[in-house]
């Protein structure tokens, strides 16, 4: 783990102890998007494991209407067993103002739902829907462009077989990269393939998923 990120671990431990076992905290290293999780505490909440990729940074954080000052608070995710999780995410910058990581707080609302009237403030969630493609603000484009760079730069695209290229496109599609207007052009350029090829891969992915 990078020293710049390890300095946040005492704060993460303090927050986890403050809010108890229902509070999971995950530290991401965004220089390695495909395996960004580098530290977790109370990971029984969602089962996040070190070495896993990010899940919600683009779809529910960067594309949220009220995303500002590098953070998004109180958005809703659900676990495979249908538990509601209230999540908040803040991006971390280095001394050069470059995004290097993120801290995600995931709070299991199961117990609090039983006393919802008493905990209305604690249970405030964002039900914003995400459009198929939007034209985001400049600061969002900067972060997503950086993620695209890191996702692709971690792979020697010149040596990839077709199925590997589809797998890489699929990873970016699942993470919401292509919700950003112009991202298909950028990915095509960086992978040295045509935009038409990216669209054909995405069509193939949709057929496989259906």
UniProtKB/TrEMBL annotation:
<dbReference type="InterPro" id="IPR013559">
    <property type="entry name" value="YheO"/>
</dbReference>
<protein>
    <submittedName>
        <fullName>PAS domain-containing protein</fullName>
    </submittedName>
</protein>
<feature type="domain" description="Transcriptional regulator DauR-like HTH">
    <location>
        <begin position="144"/>
        <end position="203"/>
    </location>
</feature>
<feature type="domain" description="YheO-like">
    <location>
        <begin position="5"/>
        <end position="117"/>
    </location>
</feature>
<dbReference type="Pfam" id="PF08348">
    <property type="entry name" value="PAS_6"/>
</dbReference>
<dbReference type="Pfam" id="PF13309">
    <property type="entry name" value="HTH_22"/>
</dbReference>
<dbReference type="InterPro" id="IPR039445">
    <property type="entry name" value="DauR-like_HTH"/>
</dbReference>
<dbReference type="InterPro" id="IPR039446">
    <property type="entry name" value="DauR-like"/>
</dbReference>
